[in-house]
Structure formats: C-alpha cells, structure tokens
C-alpha cells in the first residue's frame, strides 16, 4: 500500500516526486508529463484567433496569437481507451514573437490538474518557446490549490512531432514555500 | 462596533489585514473586495477584440479574447455617489479557453490600487476562471510598489450576476517576503 | 582581459550588480538597460494584430493588442556598428487597457538574454505601463536558466521618445532564492 499514499502504482513514479533541496532548506516538487498540441487534423487543440490575417493567420508567422486547450498526459501516446493517461489540460495562449525566424512563441497558460489528489489545482506558466531548439525553458510563475505560492521552471523537450502537431515533454520543478 | 474593526469608516482597515503565518515565519496580507465586469449595458467594462469573428466574437465561445477595465470596490454595489467605494481598477484580458463548455477563461490582469496608502501599487494576477463553479482560484504572480515580491492566491466567488454582467468577490492572500 | 570576462569596460558595471540585502538575508540582483520600442519607421519592432480594427488598430486606443520584438541594450543608442551594445530581446505583447486616456498598457513579455554568461536565460515580466507618467513599475514574475525562481520589479522611466517610438530605461531588481 505504501506507494498508494501518493497515487496508485503507475502514477506515483510518473507524475510526482517530492525531494528536499538541502541548500535552501526548501522542498521542491518535480513532475514529468507530456502535452499534445495539434494545430491540424481532426484532433485539433490549438487555433489562431489573431494576427495579420485575423483567425486565419499562420501560427508560424510573427504576430499570430493561438489559443490552446491541450491534453496533459503521463505517457506521450493519447488513445481514447487509455483514460488513466490523462492528467489535466493546458489552457491559454501562445504568440509568435519572432519576425525573422517565426520560431519564438510567448507561452501563457494554466496547467489544470484533473486527476486524483491534485484535481482542481493549477500551475501558472509564462515563458518563451523556441521551436526546434533541443531544450527550452519556461517559468512557473504561480499556482493554486495544492500548489499555492508555486514558482519554478519547466524544462521542455520535444518527444515527437509531425507537421504542425507536436508532443512536448515537460520536466517541471517548483517550490511552494 | 466589533465588525467595525474589519470594515470601519474607510479603506485602511477595510482593505488590508496583515497577519503572521506561524509555520513559515512569513507574514501574509489578506484583502477582500469586488470586481464589476459588465459585458453589456451602458456601463460596459469588458470588450471582445479577437476571436473567430474578430471584435464581434462572443465571449462565451472558445478563442475569444476580451479586454477589461473593471472597477474594484470595497462593497459590491457601484453607485456614482458612493465615491468612497472605489479601490482601484482591474486592467487586462481574459481569453475563452474551453471549446467544449465555453466556460473556462485564462485571466491575465493587473489590479491597480488607487486609494490612499496603496495608491499606485499593483498586484499581478494569472489564473483560470471556470464560470459557474461556486469557487475558483487564481494566482497572484507578482506585485509592485508596496506589494513588491508579492505571490499568493485569489479565491473567487460570484457575489451576483445578471446576464453577461457579474460581480465576482475576491478574497486575496499574499506574501511579500 | 580582466573586465572582459563579463563585458568590456562599461558594460560590467552597467548590466549586473549583485548585492546582499541584509534584512531578509536574501541576495538581490540589479540590472540597468534600455528597450527600443518602435511603432513606426523602417526599424519597426512593435505591431498591432488585434483590436476593434484588427491588425490596423491604433495602439493608442483601448483594446489594441501589440506584439513586440524589441532590442534590449546596455546603452540607449542603437547603431548597427555598435554590436557590443545588444544584450537581448524583449518579446511579447502589450495591450491597451484604458478606454478613457488610452495610456495604460498591460505588458506581458520575456526578456531573453543573448550575451555571454547569461545567454539563453530569461526574465518574465508582467505589469501595467502608464505612458507619460515619469516613473512606472512592472513585476518580475519568474525567470529561467541562471535566473530560475526570479521575482522582483522593473522601475521604468523614459530615456527618450519620438512620436510613437520610445526608449524606456529599465532598472530591474530581483531575487532568485
């Protein structure tokens, strides 16, 4: 039963590991999960609504603002039958801020947890994504519910991508004290 | 007079109560006030500017971005003669991020205090509102002036609503150290 | 060579000073630099993409959302030959939130450092600008890379302006612990 204190079996290791950082005497939390961001296809989760061409603007062009409602999962594969996989949603916006490369995006979103003991708690994210760079980093600028006073960082890598759809991997570390 | 300790004459005691949280040895501030958000009527304070139909988009639809300049008051009723009621303004944006229910909104705004000792100071808010849920929570992600280094949370309930106009009640707790 | 480790001569003192704040036992960092925000001209760096007239909206009108990619420099003058001057970019958005004066803007942006030891690190900024006021203040709500866990404030003054182009001066103070 021990591991069940946090989550049943599989989830424990996947989602949340708590450890103590000796230096600052502050406890940190670490999470690992995946976001599915689809700009195309029947499972579209990200939609441009403003830019130089309004809601028909290209997300790859400077100035385009995209609204997202992306699944957050424990494992990168999303299948409708694997209902245990869903952890929550990433809801917010990203804005293309690079007129030269078109590859930088200001990210502003809420991660809303929907499972078990963290149901309803959130993390607030702000940062800049440089698409194509092997590793990116955003800031955790706040949190709610069980994550009140949160601040930290998200190390982001790309687990997989296909055209304009991508599955970034989030390695999140934050403190709440 | 007992309750007058909390809500006396005017703003000073009404607005801010400071208490010490023993556990962390950190002092916290707590505030209670009301926002008036009117999407319709002659006192309109919230206007869509982007979405799938540009500035004529429906705030209740996924993708719509609304710009707000809402009054922040000590008491829920706004009357022009009750000038003592005004505490400041909430200025920023909310974005509809739920394609299924249309009830989730990413909130990004500044609370600009305009009265007495806190005049000119701000709190920075980021979070997700789920309209219709009895209690919601946003994060205080920063502050300026007398609220430098602020971080905390806003517990939000609906004091009253009429059509697309609403008066949410903010119970704000934050630390500045 | 000594000072060259950080920056040539002037830059060392200009950009980063670390000092210890006795009261809280926390170390603070302080930076001083300049942003070049051009809404007009051949070196345009700020572009409206939404508002009541879409991407042709006036930045001086309530509701207009502007996307920026502004140079951050050690000295206020930008010249192409002075390559040592560039420190990074400010990438994000500002939104006109004042229907009466048209002078308030919600600022949401990332400062991306591009030089030397801070290359790739960021600060996350959120706050309200009141254009024309001698001194304004935004919040540092987070950071990444060498500025993980950052929170603090930006004191902003206007170094120079010409029509709709301006060079604000940022005096940034933040803690990372």
Q: What is the C-alpha radius of gyration of chain A, as a whole number of Å? A: 17 Å
Oligomer: homotrimer
CATH architecture assignment of chain A: Beta Barrel
Mean pLDDT score of chain A: 86
Strand content of chain A: over 45%
| Count of domain modules of chain A | 1
Strand tally of chain A is 10
Q: How far is the N terminus from the C terminus of chain A?
A: 29 Å
Q: Biggest interface, which chains?
A: A-B, 29 and 32 residues
In words, what does this structure look like?
The structure is a homotrimer of 177-residue chains. The first copy, chain A, has 177 residues and is mainly beta. Chain A has one domain (28-176): AOC barrel-like, CATH 2.40.480.10. Chain A is 4% helix and 54% strand. Chain A has one helix at 9-15, and strands at residues 16-21, 26-38, 46-50, 65-73, 86-96, 104-113, 122-130, 136-144, 151-162, 165-175. The radius of gyration of chain A is 17 Å and the shape is globular. The A-B interface holds A 47, 49-50, 54-55, 65, 67-69, 91-93, 108-110, 112, 122, 124, 126, 141-145, 148-151, 177 and B 24, 50-54, 57, 62-65, 95-99, 104, 106, 108, 126-128, 137-142, 151-153, 175.
Helix-strand layout with pairing:
Three copies of one chain form a homotrimer.
Chain A (H helix, E strand, L loop, with lengths): L8 H7 E6 L4 E13 L7 E5 L14 E9 L12 E11 L7 E10 L8 E9 L5 E9 L6 E12 L2 E11 L2
Antiparallel strand pairs in A: 1-2, 2-4, 2-10, 3-4, 4-5, 5-6, 6-7, 7-8, 8-9, 9-10
Descriptors for this entry?
homotrimer, 177 residues, mainly beta, AOC barrel-like, 1 helix, globular, disordered N terminus, Dirigent (chains A, B, C), Dirigent protein (chains A, B, C), secreted (chains A, B, C), signal (chains A, B, C), Allene_oxi_cyc_Dirigent (chains A, B, C)
């Amino acid at each position: 039963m021990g591991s069940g204190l946090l989550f049943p079996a599989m989830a424990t290791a996947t989602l949340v590991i708590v450890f103590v950082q000796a230096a600052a005497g502050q406890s940190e939390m670490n999470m690992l999960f995946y976001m599915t961001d689809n700009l195309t296809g029947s499972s579209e989760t990200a939609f441009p609504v403003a830019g130089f061409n309004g809601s028909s603007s290209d997300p790859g062009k400077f100035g385009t603002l995209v609204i997202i409602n992306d699944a957050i999962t424990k494992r990168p594969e999303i299948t409708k039958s694997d209902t245990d996989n869903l952890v929550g949603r990433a809801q917010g916006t990203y804005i293309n801020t690079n007129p030269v490369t078109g590859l930088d995006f200001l990210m502003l979103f809420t991660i809303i947890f929907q499972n078990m003991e963290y149901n309803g708690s959130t993390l607030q994210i702000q940062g800049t994504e440089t698409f194509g760079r092997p590793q990116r980093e955003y800031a955790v600028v706040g949190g709610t519910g069980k994550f009140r006073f949160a601040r930290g960082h998200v190390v982001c890598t790309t687990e997989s991508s296909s055209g304009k759809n991508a599955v970034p991997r989030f390695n999140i570390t934050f403190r709440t004290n």
